[in-house]
Amino acid sequence: MKSNKQIFIKLLREVEKNVKNLKDEQFEEFVKGNFRIQITPLKDTINKPNKKKIKKGVSENQLQEVINLLNNTDEREAGLKILNEKGANKFYLAALMKSLDIPSLQRDNIEKLKEKIIEATIGYRLRSKAIQGKSRPNERD
């Protein structure tokens, strides 16, 4: 069981997070006393584990590293190799797609997710170069 001190610290962190999310105009109104921050418990969330914490987390740094590798690759096969080397599971690929702002369906399997990521990062550049008449991917202006 958490101590009262730990609960209070968590509460203050939540308040801090919400204050940081306020727009400047909202914060000014809060300082003037015309805006109030209210703390209310969410229904059925007390003493239930946070599902987001249960899932294996993927850091933004890890995702950005893979995105950079894919952006610097000019072959679909090399991009697929990068994804395979990272041991990409469905959760990891979904997080990567979210970072890349690629739409996906929940029913998409791992291979379909990989295909969408490759086409969004490497495939579009290859198509663009082909349209521009550049025959080799490594050819620069």
CA-based gyration radius: 22 Å
User: Separation of termini?
Assistant: 63 Å
What is the N-to-C order of secondary-structure elements (H for helix, E for strand)? HHHHHHH
How confident is the prediction overall: mean pLDDT? 78
Outline, from the CA principal axes? elongated
Query: What kind of sheet is the major sheet?
Result: none
Which blocks of ≥5 consecutive residues have pLDDT under 50?
Answer: 48-55
Q: Pairing-aware structural class of the strands and helices?
A: mainly alpha
Q: Domains counted in the coordinates: how many?
A: 2
**Proportion in helices:** 55-70%
Q: Count every helix, treating DSSP H or I runs of 4 or more residues as helices.
A: 7
Beta-strand proportion: under 5%
